[in-house]
């Protein structure tokens, strides 16, 4: 778990334990390597150049990102192999930005429609490097992605538009659940749908050397075979949701929001100076309240405003004093990171570094 917070820390602040972080990164890299998977972690969870560097030095093949803006930020930080794992719909501005990226880095982009593939091909035609395309498939989360049998139609449109079709990808959002059975079912769904989609491309003579899946909940359930690339993101920090569904332990939590007790209105209630503008407002079906409190695991954040978090304690549990520092593990780590300017790196109660959130707000 995150190292004890430094005395006198200005709050609210996001605090990272570098030793837990490095252990999480190394464990995922070693597990992927041992099972024969390429690792292309999703950087939208941390948005930080220093963390990306740690992942790449541990053996990651490249990075996944969610937006052109994130790709630009990491390209500017020296990352030269990027996959925009998103069905980008290009307007004139985004088309120009994507073309510049295609001239500078090895670039992959997700597509899930014939129209989107044609727009992408037109935008990057004549770029210095050939843009690679992965067709997105819906493996059960019912967000974006085509059905496996339709992957060939989208892939052919991309190839006709001059793009280099290299495979398929998916997001297993339905892998979140209270037990490993839900995660295993989602992993099997991924394997089946990605395998069918890859075959649909091959039947048309298109490339399918990259078969990309995996999220933090499902990554440990993979069986070597059809899939050869994994894209987990949250694992670098973990969060209250991952803790609740059992994909990590308390010792694997690498980031907390540090907060100060600003009010103690009752023995069973106290208020922190951290709210939705720091924690985000994500609720979780698996977490009671708005975050996990390592120092008060039986407590619950029952109320969240922009700058207030109200914590209730069960009867008989002693609360903190006014002015005390309290750590909060957010429900979903990606949102707080996107809201922060920097991450404080703390070891042995000392701030040893400050990492800028390189892709903060890079949402287009």
TrEMBL record:
<dbReference type="Pfam" id="PF14031">
    <property type="entry name" value="D-ser_dehydrat"/>
</dbReference>
<protein>
    <submittedName>
        <fullName>Alanine racemase</fullName>
        <ecNumber>5.1.1.1</ecNumber>
    </submittedName>
</protein>
<keyword id="KW-0413">Isomerase</keyword>
<dbReference type="InterPro" id="IPR001608">
    <property type="entry name" value="Ala_racemase_N"/>
</dbReference>
<dbReference type="GO" id="GO:0016740">
    <property type="term" value="F:transferase activity"/>
</dbReference>
<dbReference type="InterPro" id="IPR026956">
    <property type="entry name" value="D-ser_dehydrat-like_dom"/>
</dbReference>
<dbReference type="GO" id="GO:0008784">
    <property type="term" value="F:alanine racemase activity"/>
</dbReference>
<keyword id="KW-0808">Transferase</keyword>
<comment type="similarity">
    <text>Belongs to the DSD1 family.</text>
</comment>
<feature type="domain" description="D-serine dehydratase-like">
    <location>
        <begin position="254"/>
        <end position="347"/>
    </location>
</feature>
<keyword id="KW-0456">Lyase</keyword>
<dbReference type="InterPro" id="IPR042208">
    <property type="entry name" value="D-ser_dehydrat-like_sf"/>
</dbReference>
<dbReference type="InterPro" id="IPR029066">
    <property type="entry name" value="PLP-binding_barrel"/>
</dbReference>
<dbReference type="Pfam" id="PF01168">
    <property type="entry name" value="Ala_racemase_N"/>
</dbReference>
<dbReference type="InterPro" id="IPR051466">
    <property type="entry name" value="D-amino_acid_metab_enzyme"/>
</dbReference>
């Amino acid at each position: 778990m995150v190292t004890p917070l430094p005395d006198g820390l200005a709050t609210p602040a996001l605090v990272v334990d570098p030793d837990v972080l490095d252990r999480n990164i190394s464990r995922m890299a070693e597990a992927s390597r041992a099972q024969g998977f390429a690792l292309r972690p999703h950087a939208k969870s941390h948005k930080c150049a220093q963390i990306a560097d740690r992942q790449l030095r541990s053996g990651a093949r490249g990075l996944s990102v969610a937006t052109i803006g994130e790709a630009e930020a990491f390209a500017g930080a020296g990352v030269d192999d990027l996959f925009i794992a998103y069905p980008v719909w290009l307007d004139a501005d985004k088309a120009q930005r994507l073309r510049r990226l295609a001239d500078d880095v090895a670039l992959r982009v997700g597509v899930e429609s014939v129209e989107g593939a044609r727009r992408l091909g037109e935008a990057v035609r004549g770029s210095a490097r050939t843009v690679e395309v992965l067709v997105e498939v819906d493996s059960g989360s019912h967000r974006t992605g085509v059905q496996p049998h339709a992957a060939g139609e989208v892939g052919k449109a991309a190839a006709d538009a001059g793009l280099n079709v290299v495979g398929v990808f998916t997001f297993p959002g339905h892998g979140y659940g209270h037990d490993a059975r839900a995660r295993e079912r989602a992993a099997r769904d991924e394997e089946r749908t990605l395998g069918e989609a890859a075959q649909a491309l091959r039947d048309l003579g298109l490339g399918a050397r990259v078969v990309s899946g995996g999220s933090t909940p499902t990554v440990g359930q993979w069986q070597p075979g059809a899939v050869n690339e994994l894209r987990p993101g949250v694992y670098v920090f973990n969060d209250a949701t991952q803790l609740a569904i059992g994909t990590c332990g308390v010792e694997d939590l690498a980031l907390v929001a540090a907060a100060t007790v600003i009010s103690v209105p009752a023995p069973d209630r106290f208020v922190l100076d951290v709210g939705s503008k720091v924690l985000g407002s994500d609720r979780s079906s698996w977490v009671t309240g708005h975050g996990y409190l390592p120092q008060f695991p039986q407590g619950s954040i029952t109320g969240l405003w922009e700058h207030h978090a109200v914590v209730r304690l069960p009867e008989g549990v002693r609360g903190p004093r006014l002015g005390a520092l309290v750590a909060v593990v957010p429900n979903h780590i990606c949102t707080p990171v996107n809201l922060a300017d920097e991450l404080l790196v703390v070891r042995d109660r000392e701030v040893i570094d400050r990492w800028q959130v390189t892709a903060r707000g890079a949402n287009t």
